[in-house]
Amino acid sequence: MRVLVVEDEQLLADAVATGLRREAMAVDVVYDGAAALERVDVNDYDVVVLDRDLPIVHGDDVCRRIVDLGMPTRVLMLTASGDISDRVEGLELGADDYLPKPFAFAELTARVRALGRRTTSPLPPVLERAGIKLDPNRREVFRNGAEIQLAPKEFAVLEVLMRGEGTVVSAEQLLEKAWDENTDPFTNVVRVTVMTLRRKLGEPAVIHTVPGAGYRI
């Protein structure tokens, strides 16, 4: 899942981003509304965690821009105000969910995951294919009943491939969904991660390379 965190309190923004990355999400971070507009114009995000009271460009205007673009991106709006009227106003702008500060990180994560599920075609909560069971919420992976321990990036790549339901997923698509914008697209990070993932999943291999196209399960 690709997430953009937009929050002018830098310590909070960085803490949220770090926590979401530990949950196997690819996360970009910006600290003002102008930078957020630049990102949503060039990147496809599943979820934008958007503070409402932003400098330079207000969060309301960022939300309007996302809605005007007709993107499938879901918006989780944050605010220091807990007034019902503010929540209603934010939702009327086009936000998909609203979370007042201070918040529990576990709740934020659950809401981001719930919104992320709404950006794609409905799928069962536990993904199953080729003897593999992957639970995105619990971050658990089993093959033929045996649990497999994966690093966050390995889990993220496997989830993207599982959601492909047998279609070919390109290296570019994996970079977009499993890594943030700071990753050099010319590195072999995707190939190395897929190789490690294959080894951990064991034999027979279930991740197949399609020459010149990508990978599929």
Automatic annotation (TrEMBL):
Known DNA-binding region: 124-217
Keyword DNA-binding in annotation: yes
Pfam families to which the protein is assigned, alphabetical: Response_reg, Trans_reg_C
Keywords noted in UniProt: DNA-binding, Phosphoprotein
SMART domains (alphabetical): REC, Trans_reg_C
The Response regulatory domain, residue ranges: 2-116
Keyword DNA-binding among record annotations: yes
Name by which UniProt lists this protein: Response regulator transcription factor
Originating species: Streptomyces ovatisporus
